[in-house]
Amino acid sequence: MPGAEATIEADPIERGAIEADYVVIGAGAMGMAFTDVILTHTDATVAIVDRHDKPGGHWNDAYPFVRLHQPSSFYGVDSAELGSNRIDEVGWNAGLSELASGAEVCAYFDQVMQRRFLPSGRVTHHARSVYADGVVTSIPTGRTASVRAGRRLVDATYMNVTVPSMRPPAYGVADGVRVIPPNGLPSADRPEGGYVIVGAGKTAMDAVLWLLDRGVDPAEITWITPRDSWLLNRAVIQPGDGFRLNEQFDVLAVADSAEAVYAGMEEAGHFLRIDPSIEPTMYRCATVTEAELTQLRRVADGIVRQGRVERIEPDALVLEGGTLSRPPDSLHVDCSADGLERRPAVPVFAKDRLTLQTVRACQQVFSAALIARVESDRSLDLDAANRLTGVIPHPDVPRDFLSGALAHIANAQQWLGHDGLLEWLGQTRLSPDGPPADPTAVVRAAANLERFLAE
Ligand SMILES: Cc1cc2nc3c(=O)[nH]c(=O)nc-3n(C[C@H](O)[C@H](O)[C@H](O)COP(=O)(O)OP(=O)(O)OC[C@H]3O[C@@H](n4cnc5c(N)ncnc54)[C@H](O)[C@@H]3O)c2cc1C
Q: In the chain, where are the structural domains located?
């Protein structure tokens, strides 16, 4: 306003204290999804602290060809659509719901911050700032501020997501050996000795698929996979009626052993695997299409199953199960970071603190949003809030699929008993519920799961 005296609020770090009802450590997908629901369902203020300059967490560090593994339509924050619900017409996801690229995910979270959170006047974003032991330190200035959360400190870092570009490989690398994270792949020159992809997870699959998509001959790709994995078929994880995960209860209800569950899930088209002759020992919710699986199988002859890499020498890979000779001018692509490790479950709700974790298997943003909705009900005591938010740790082995399904049944029963939550579940864009589960199948599934897990 002309003539009005401008008021410039001193930076909270300059003042020496960051105060808000909630101080959220971590502006990754979980911290953002949590804050969004708190803004909608309460009048609370939120201070968000993050080491990164922009919101989005690990998506800021991911390789340039990364995409969501699941449809955009149920990723992000509750109040804002991500993407436009299009069906992909080209590529190996053709016919299925669109998947945002890493750049789109980062731009989306930046817009949520700039257009919703900050203009609300209830959120402050302390970018490039690190939290430790109650103190926030600004990286650019070195200034520190103590943290005072009126209601709770929210730990949105507990999932400890690690992508390859964030750390050096855990194995030894001799001088002169070329090892890059997948981030360097699009700008790397063709190595005369071929490509060596290190890692068994989704990042390694993405790197292999990127090479094949760029026309690299499968014979030039060596793929070090210490474990084979059950993969989820993206065709059954589509929005609306395409979300067919409830069919898993039909499989679980009739199975007579854990092995029969995996076989039944494969027969029902939910589980996929690269080599049908190998029983997978890994399950981490990695999600692919059948078209991608067909591509991955093109490198079957280059897959090396001799355990983890211990050391890379100029002319050989030293693996747990033996030594593999390699031409000296190979390019090694390190995809071995743990991504989402299986962390011990801790109670989500404590007196002064919330620890954001997964309460629906492999659905991090949904989980963070649901925890915020529970938090917004100030009538609940800690025990009641924790009963509504039973933690389902990220899976690592096939058995974790069983414990995750049983924990999901228990959580869903709790949610049915809370009116506000039930209403929220009915309207949130983050809850992809397709056709309802058959209640009789769910009861039988729970009984079977308890038996299989006890065996
Ligand atoms: C390649 C890849 C693809 C994925 N695709 C999907 C998908 O399609 N669907 C899905 O549901 N999930 C997917 N995931 C899982 C994904 O990890 C979650 O969706 C989600 O992004 C995790 O967010 P987060 O907030 O828990 O963690 P992060 O993204 O790691 O955010 C945590 C933030 O906390 C900050 N931080 C940590 N410690 C401190 C500190 N002391 N002080 C200040 N800041 C700190 C970090 O800088 C970071 O920004 C994918 C994961 C990967 C690796």
A: 12-161+341-394, 167-228+273-334
